[in-house]
Write a structure and sequence with these properties.
single chain, mainly beta, 13-stranded mixed beta sheet, two-stranded antiparallel ribbon, about 45% strand
């Protein structure tokens, strides 16, 4: 059962509309999680996890010819009490008509995500190799000494989103229409957006509570349509410009966060996802994004039935370098590695395309 409630009220002169709603939205347990848990339970096939530089580890792209003697299999399980992820969404918006074609609106949106799916290692080592050898404890003191890592899918993640949206809209009339919007938001969660996200501390999920991977504080979007109808009368300018349509689109997004990593396994849980001591998840600042797209078209009508539209489109017209995916490894030294925060990718460069569309 997913209840929804919506209310719209237009008080006074009817030019102001107040809208409010609340809803519950359910997701499903990903089939990938159930498939992995069914196949990788240690009975159908076994997974051996080699360490970097291990003497008998196969060299890429080669694979091991047999399961290594003495290796304990790593398995994947699923929490028997796992539940469907769901969100509770609440919003409030006030919209005011300024003139016959223009409205301005301001709204607030809150989304609470509950039971988000994540993968947690429930069989991490409790001792270092030296301590385990000294004490004579097998398998590094793991809770279950018969297995290596035991990755368990469970619905223990959560998220919070709060956003303020302001926009002004002009419905297309005469020759112009457009929309300008600005969003101020903050997103916090305890799990990353990647399906195989694992926490830094498998015994303390709250330690990973921080900014979401897609937290973007400021977003600006502008779009417009400028068009003149085809005119067979009037001056030469109206005849030439008639039928042309110009559509500019501008988008800007402030920098996304990234997770600062040491590049080593500081807590000896066999996962290289540890952060420096005292550094929260996703406290690094990445790169912002800006792009200006433009579309120019002209429609020509040959008869009541046949017509032709000529189209020219440019994406990222000014060829801005929108850097992405910074190198998140800061290293273990007193100063960051030289490659730390350097971009490892970029969004699309300028692209221009032309097209013809025949209507009949």
């Amino acid at each position: 059962m997913a209840p929804r409630l919506g209310i719209a009220w237009a008080p006074g002169d009817g030019k102001t509309v107040i809208r409010a709603n609340y809803g519950v939205y359910y997701d499903r347990i990903p089939l990938r999680a159930t498939s992995n848990a069914l196949q990788r339970d240690g009975s159908k096939y076994k997974v051996a996890q080699f360490s970097f530089g291990q003497a008998d580890a196969p060299v890429f792209p080669n694979v091991a010819t047999a399961f290594p003697t003495g290796f304990l299999p790593a398995i994947t399980t699923i929490d028997p009490n796992i539940g469907n992820a769901y969100s509770q969404q609440t919003s409030l918006q006030i919209e005011r008509q300024l003139d016959l074609h223009t409205t301005i609106a301001a709204g607030y949106l809150r989304t609470r995500g509950i039971h988000l799916i994540l993968s947690r290692n429930v069989n991490v080592p409790t001792l270092t190799a030296a301590d385990a050898n000294r004490l004579g404890v097998p398998n590094l003191g793991r809770p279950n000494p018969n297995f290596g890592n035991m990755s368990r899918y469970e619905s223990s993640g959560d998220s919070y989103y709060n956003g303020l949206l302001v926009s002004i809209n002009r419905r297309f009339a005469s020759w112009f229409g457009g929309r300008l919007s600005y969003t101020l938001s903050k997103a916090i969660d305890t799990t990353g957006s990647a399906f195989f996200f694992t926490p830094q501390n498998n015994a303390n999920l709250r330690d990973d509570r921080g900014l979401s991977d897609n937290d973007q504080r400021h977003v600006v979007a502008l779009s417009a349509t400028l068009a003149l109808p085809v005119s067979r009368t009037g001056n030469a300018w109206r005849k030439i410009a008639g039928g042309f349509q110009l559509n500019p689109v501008f988008r800007y997004g402030s920098a996304l966060p990234f997770n600062i990593l040491l590049g080593t396994d500081r807590n000896f849980d066999t996962s290289v996802n540890d952060r420096p001591i005292g550094v929260g998840r996703n406290t690094g600042v990445g790169f912002d994004f800006a792009s200006f797209d433009l579309r120019l078209s002209r429609r020509m009508k040959f008869s009541e039935r046949y017509g032709l539209e000529v189209i020219a489109e440019a994406f990222n017209l000014f060829n801005r370098a929108n850097l992405q995916l910074p190198n998140a490894t800061i290293g273990t030294g007193a100063t960051p590695l030289p490659t730390f925060r350097q971009a490892t990718g970029a969004a699309d460069p300028r692209q221009i395309q032309f097209g013809l569309r025949i209507t009949y």
